[in-house]
Design brief:
GO terms for molecular function: ABC-type quaternary ammonium compound transporting activity; ATP binding; ATP hydrolysis activity. The chain has about 325 residues and is an alpha/beta fold. Helix content is about 40%, strand content about 25%. The strands form 3 sheets. The chain has a 6-stranded mixed beta sheet, with helices on both faces. A 4-stranded antiparallel beta sheet has the order 2-1-4-5, covered by helices on one side. A 3-stranded mixed beta sheet has the order 11-12-13. Helix 7 (about 140-150) packs parallel to helix 8 (about 170-185). The chain starts with a strand and ends with a helix. The protein binds adenosine-5'-diphosphate and magnesium ion.
């Protein structure tokens, strides 16, 4: 549904930020752009909603060149979430969320219903939060409102540029999980920029790895770990054993989760995440033969992966 065909961006000062890239994002896909700072991720993202125009090549959305679409309509159909929370400080939470619905001339009652629905979706009680100012919310809550505001006009596409990188680890875990859940519920097409490989591996259906304006590999998390295209990808993902091959049994807690979808204790974390994505739940019940031996959740997997990452870093420093 989003298609980049031989797209290049050269800035007036001569910097070639993006060099002849090609990729396609499928409808409903969670597509992650990843790479080191300065490799062209933000430029690529901004070309989708025309905050930046490509110098060469074509970008199509649903087979239509974005240059022939009405610019305002294009922006309304695309939600955009930035690293720096950009809520309007003098407007209430409800007013902040209502911006695009009002531009789209939704009725007051539709807009109000949408605000409540979205606040509930990210676990913020509308009665409590609707009339607060952004300054009366924590950083994590403000960022959650940023995500919700981007969804308010019911866009088909959501662009997210390092949306969690300014957050403390706890809010970050929570929001990663929220966004994973949201994707399951609403099935938007999401293009998500990060430089955090664990975040990419957790959330992505497919990952595009960028280096100096080029895309060096586009693949599923599993294939990237198992078949890195070159040494750059290998070093980027870390020369480590694949933590996704770890068994559920090693990562689970011993708390039972009666009624949750089941997974065998010998299944891999990849399998567990696939199953979590496919189900409507965020926890699975772990079975050894027919006996419940524990449960595994998104949160435990995230913690396991970040501990794993930390231990790799420690080893490198020794
Ligand atoms: N407006 C601009 N003018 C000139 N160079 C720019 C401009 N914006 C970004 N760049 C350069 O383009 C390259 C890619 O930037 P960017 O897309 O922001 O990278 P990333 O998001 O991956 O960190 C960098 O070298 C950056 O300095
Ligand atoms: Mg950037």
């Amino acid at each position: 549904m989003i298609e980049f065909d031989q797209v290049t961006k050269q800035f007036p000062d001569g910097t070639k930020a993006v060099n002849n890239i090609n990729f396609r994002v499928k409808e409903g896909e969670f597509f992650v752009l990843i790479g080191p700072s300065g490799c062209g991720k933000t430029t690529t993202l901004k070309m989708i909603n025309r905050l930046i125009d490509a110098s060469e090549g074509t970008i199509k959305i649903n087979d239509e060149n974005i240059l022939s679409k009405n610019l305002h309509k294009l922006r309304w159909e695309i939600g955009y979430v930035l690293q720096q929370i950009a809520l309007f400080p003098h407007m209430t939470i409800a007013e902040n969320i209502a911006i695009v619905p009002e531009l789209k001339k939704w009725s007051k009652s539709d807009t109000n219903a949408r605000i409540d629905e979205l606040l509930e979706m990210v676990g913020l009680h509308p009665g409590t939060y609707r009339d607060r100012l952004p300054s009366e919310l924590s950083g994590g809550q403000q960022q959650r409102i940023g995500v919700v505001r981007a969804l308010a006009g019911n866009p088909d596409i959501l662009l997210m540029d390092e949306p969690f990188s300014a957050l403390d680890p706890l809010s970050r875990d929570q929001l990663q999980q929220d966004v994973g859940d949201l994707q399951k519920q609403i099935k938007k097409t999401i293009v998500f920029v990060t430089h955090d490989i664990n975040e990419a591996l957790l959330l992505a259906d497919r990952i595009a790895i960028m280096q100096e304006g080029s895309i060096v590999q586009v693949d599923t998390p599993e294939n990237i770990l198992d078949h890195p295209a070159n040494d750059f990808v290998r070093s980027f993902i870390g020369n480590k054993t694949n933590p996704w091959k770890e068994t559920v049994e090693k990562v689970m807690s011993e708390t039972d989760a009666p009624g949750a979808p089941v997974i065998p204790h010998t299944a891999t974390l990849t399998k567990a995440v696939d199953q979590l994505k496919a189900s409507e739940k965020d926890v699975l019940r772990v079975l050894n033969r027919n006996e419940a031996v524990g449960s595994i959740s998104y949160k435990q997997i995230v913690h396991y992966l970040s501990d794993f990452e930390a231990s790799v870093k420690e080893e490198v420093q020794k």
